[in-house]
C-alpha cells in the first residue's frame, strides 16, 4: 500500500473512531472535546505512525520505551504518551520525550519519577495504573491500596499526578468492561476527596471497549488495532 492509500485508510478510520467517541459522549451527556484519542502505534512502523499527526491526531501511544525512543526520532508533530511499564533505568531517556506517563504501577516507580522531576525542576505528568480487573497478568496498584496513596502523593513535588489508568479484561462483549471502568472512576473520586488534587484524567478503554470507557468517564482512550490493523508498514 502506497503512502497516499495509507493516508486515505487512516483518515477514514480516524474519522470513524472519532464519530464513535462523539456518539458515546452524546449518550453520556458529555462533549466530545473532553476525550483525547491516543493512537497506539506499537504495531506499525515509524513511517506509518508519522502519517497520523497530519491527520489531526497528535497524541500517539507506545508501550515499550525503546520503541518510543525510535519513533520519537522519526515522527514529527507527535505528542507522545507512554502507556506501558516504565523501568526506573529508562526514566532519564524516556520522560523528556513524553507528555504523559499513563502507567505508574508502583510506589518505587512513582518515587523514581518524583526524584527525576525534582532534579530537572519540573514535575513529571503521570497517571497511576490500577488493576481494577484483578487479573494476575496485569500490573498496577491494587484497588484497595489506592486510597492510602493519598498520603504518599501529598509529599511528592516532582510528579504531577493527573489521574488514573486501567485496562479491562478482554471480552467479546464490550459491556463487560463497564464495572472495571466504573470502579476506576470511583477510586479517582475517593482519591480526589482525600488529596484535594484535581485528578481530571481517566485513561480507560481500548479498541474493543473504548465506547464503554467514554460512557463511564474516560478522558483518554488508547486505540491501536481499530486504527492500524493490516497497516504495519515496513520496519526500519
Provide a descriptive summary of the structure in words:
The structure is a single chain. This protein has 236 residues and is of the alpha/beta class. 39% of the residues lie in helices and 17% in strands. It is built from nine helices and eight strands. The chain has helices spanning 3-28, 46-49, 65-74, 91-94, 107-120, 149-153, 178-195, 210-215, 225-228; strands at 36-40, 59-62, 79-82, 98-104, 124-129, 159-165, 201-203, 220-223. It has an eight-stranded parallel beta sheet with strand order 7-6-5-4-3-2-1-8. The longest helix is centred in the first third of the chain and has 26 residues, at 3-28. The two termini are 16 Å apart. The mean pLDDT is 95.
Features:
single chain; 236 residues; alpha/beta; 8-stranded parallel beta sheet; 9 helices; 8 strands; 39% helix; globular
Q: What's a quick, concise take on this entry?
A:
This protein is α/β, with parallel strands linked by helices and 236 residues long.
Tally of helical segments: 9
Number of strands: 8
What is the spatial order of strands in the main beta sheet? 7-6-5-4-3-2-1-8
Average pLDDT, rounded to a whole number, is: 95
Note poorly predicted spans.
none
Quaternary structure of the protein: single chain
**Largest sheet features:** 8 strands, parallel
Radius of gyration: 17 Å
Percent in helix: 25-40%
Order of helices and strands: HEHEHEHEHEHEHEHEH
Amino acid at each position: 500500500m502506497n503512502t497516499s492509500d495509507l493516508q486515505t485508510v487512516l483518515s477514514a478510520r480516524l474519522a470513524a473512531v472519532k464519530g464513535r467517541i462523539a456518539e458515546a459522549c452524546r449518550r453520556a451527556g458529555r462533549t466530545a472535546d473532553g476525550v483525547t484519542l491516543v493512537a497506539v502505534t506499537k504495531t506499525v512502523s515509524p513511517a506509518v505512525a508519522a502519517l497520523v499527526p497530519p491527520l489531526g491526531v497528535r497524541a500517539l501511544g507506545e508501550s515499550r520505551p525503546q520503541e518510543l525512543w525510535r519513533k520519537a526520532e522519526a515522527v514529527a508533530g507527535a505528542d507522545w504518551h507512554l502507556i506501558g511499564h516504565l523501568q526506573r533505568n529508562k526514566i532519564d531517556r524516556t520522560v523528556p520525550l513524553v507528555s504523559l506517563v499513563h502507567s505508574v504501577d508502583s510506589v518505587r516507580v512513582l518515587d523514581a519519577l518524583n526524584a527525576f522531576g525534582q532534579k530537572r525542576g519540573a514535575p513529571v505528568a503521570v497517571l497511576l495504573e490500577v488493576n481494577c480487573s484483578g487479573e494476575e497478568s496485569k500490573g498496577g496498584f491494587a484497588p484497595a491500596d489506592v486510597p492510602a496513596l493519598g498520603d504518599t502523593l501529598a509529599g511528592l513535588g516532582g510528579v504531577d499526578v493527573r489521574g488514573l489508568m486501567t485496562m479491562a479484561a478482554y471480552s467479546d462483549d464490550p459491556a463487560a468492561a463497564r464495572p472495571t471502568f466504573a470502579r476506576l472512576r470511583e477510586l479517582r473520586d475517593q482519591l480526589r476527596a482525600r488529596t484535594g488534587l484535581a485528578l481530571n484524567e481517566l485513561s480507560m478503554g481500548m479498541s474493543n471497549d473504548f465506547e464503554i470507557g467514554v460512557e463511564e468517564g474516560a478522558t483518554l482512550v488508547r486505540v491501536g488495532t481499530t486504527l492500524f490493523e493490516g497497516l504495519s508498514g515496513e520496519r526500519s
